[in-house]
Every structure is written in C-alpha cells, then in structure tokens.
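ugh ok fine here u go
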Amino acid sequence: MTDAVKTEGLRATRVIENEERMLRAARALFVEHGYQASTLAAVAEAAGVAPRTVYVRFGTKAALLKKVVDVTVAGDLKPIDVTHREWYLTSVSAPSLDERIGAFAKGSTRLLASAADVIAVAVEAAATEPALAAAGRAGRAATRDSVHGFWSAAAEAGLLPHQCDLRWLSDTTSALAQAETYLLMRETLGMTPRRYRTWLATTWRRMAYGPG
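structure:
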C-alpha cells in the first residue's frame, strides 16, 4: 500500500468521524433546545469542529436536521434503506404470518423508539421549512410502501386468510405504523416502546385474521 493510499484512507476516516460527531452533537442540541434555538455554530462548538466544517458538509440547518433524522432512522451512515435492513427482510421472509408480524413490530418499534424525539423536532420545524416538510412526506410515503410490501409478500406466500381485503389491510396498517402515530400515542396514552410493540403486533394480527 502506497503512502498516498494510506493518507487518503486516513483522510476518509477523519471525514466520517467528524460527520458522526457533528450528527451526534446536532441530535443532542435539537432534542434538548428545539429547532429554532439550535444553530450550526452551536453544533460546531459541541462537535469540536470549525463552524465552516458544518456549513460545508451540510449547508443549512434544515439539511442537517434531515440528515440527523435519516441516520437515526437507519441506525448508521450506511446508504441502506429500511426495506433492505435485516429486520425488514426477516419480516417478509419468516415462515409464518405471526413471526413476520412479530419481526416487523420489533424492528419498527426499535426504529421509532430511537428516532421519535428527533422526528418530533422535524415535524414541528416542517411548518416553516419546506425541505423538512417534503422530507416528512417522503418518509410517510416510504413507511406506507414498506407496509404495503410487507402485506404483499405475505399474500404471495399464501399466509393471509382468503377473505382478507389486502388493500384495506395495507392502507390501514400503514397509518398505524407511521412515526406520527407513535408520537401521538406516546403523548396521549403514555405509550412505552414495549407497550407499543405489543399493541402494534396484536392489532395487526387482529386486522389480518379478522374477529376471533
């Protein structure tokens, strides 16, 4: 390995480490102080980098918050969407419908519990930030599509009752799986992640199998 290659590798590592520090600092500031009160300069100070580093990497505060949400939802910086994550792949390939629903409820709850606070910040900020409003719409559409994919895979595997209305089931359960639904239930019902996971799995099973 040449010195140039080593130097390039070290530089790439430092870039990733700096980005991770900036994202951690931004998430903490957004959640603690809210969107309006948080600044890129404060993020730079908390992350231990120059203010220009934050501006060059993210450009705007809205873009930074969107990246924080994206990374928190995914769980890391890897460019892998939810439908290609291990927990989702398990949910569309397990041998029984109960196992599939359980896998989806587990993975979805873990995602929402981790990202709920920063998503709440983004939802509030979307009222004044068109880029965040658009990202919110895209996120809701992605959730809808992943839920539709889940039920379509179950139907193709012959796991749904013959009387099941696939379109109704997909549309209705996708609304239940949205981040805003989790936030509402957390606020109004004091829903914990453990209770939400049980509620989601139980509700989906009842909706799929019908009364009784």
